[in-house]
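Quick sanity check, Sushi domain-containing protein:
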Amino acid sequence: MPASPIAAHVVSCCRCRFAGDTAAAGPAACNTQPDTALPSNATWNCSTTTASGSTCVAECITGFTAEQGTSLQATCTNGTWASSGGNLNCTAPAGPAACNTQPDTVLPSNATWNCSTTTASGSTCVAACITGFTAVQGTSLQATCTNGTWASSGGNLNCTAPAGPAACNTQPDTALPSNATWNCSTTTASGSTCVAECITGFTAVQGTSLQATCTNGTWASSGGNLNCTAPELSERKLLMQQDRLGLLKSIRFARAPQENVAQHTRRAAAGVLTRAAASQTAALAPAVVPVSAAASVAATMGDKEPGEGKDT
């Protein structure tokens, strides 16, 4: 049965209407990058226009690496972003190991390391002299950390004490009083004192003294009134000496008259014998007295001449 003209017209009209219509609009795209906050050192890898249903993934920037098991992404749904994951962690790549101790190089006397116990690889630690000591010119010691290991260089550091004040290499040049001496040796450190003392048998008068101080090689005296005297005799010894002296004088004076009497007696006896001999000679003129007899008589009268008896 042939189609009705009316039905054919209706179909034809419908086809014409559908042929002129435009295509229906789809879901909207996302025209910006995801608005989800990014962790440090990360960025989105998508452009500013992302079709609905597409996903944008966050990545670590150059020089950093995502920690294993962490991620972040966002999906565009009809113009709206929705994130998932969210625990992305970007870390720097592990570099060479640091040195976590001071250098193990043996230090010279009076030196120390000037670095802490943690030193980055490639850094250097320098040895320095401790307070009060100075490095001899041209000597040094240092160590460099390389991936956790120390390597030293230099190695001839020499720390010396600064030169102190000069000592005095002689005894003090201050004039000493009589009967005194210095009690120090010929080498005295600067700042030390040398005291003058009385020699054995002498005593310093109370309140007198003499000393000298060495200052950088030069003596400077103080005091200066030292007086050394012989020890005084005790009162008893002094009285004994006085008594002895008086006794000696008394004996001397007592002996003097006795010696004079004996001398006069001998002279008188000699005079008497001389006169008697003369009388006998006159009475017996022919007789001659032998010389030996006269000599014997003279000997008995002592060492004085016979004529001396006339003085009595």
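Posting the structure with no commentary besides this: The first strand starts at residue 42 and ends at 44.
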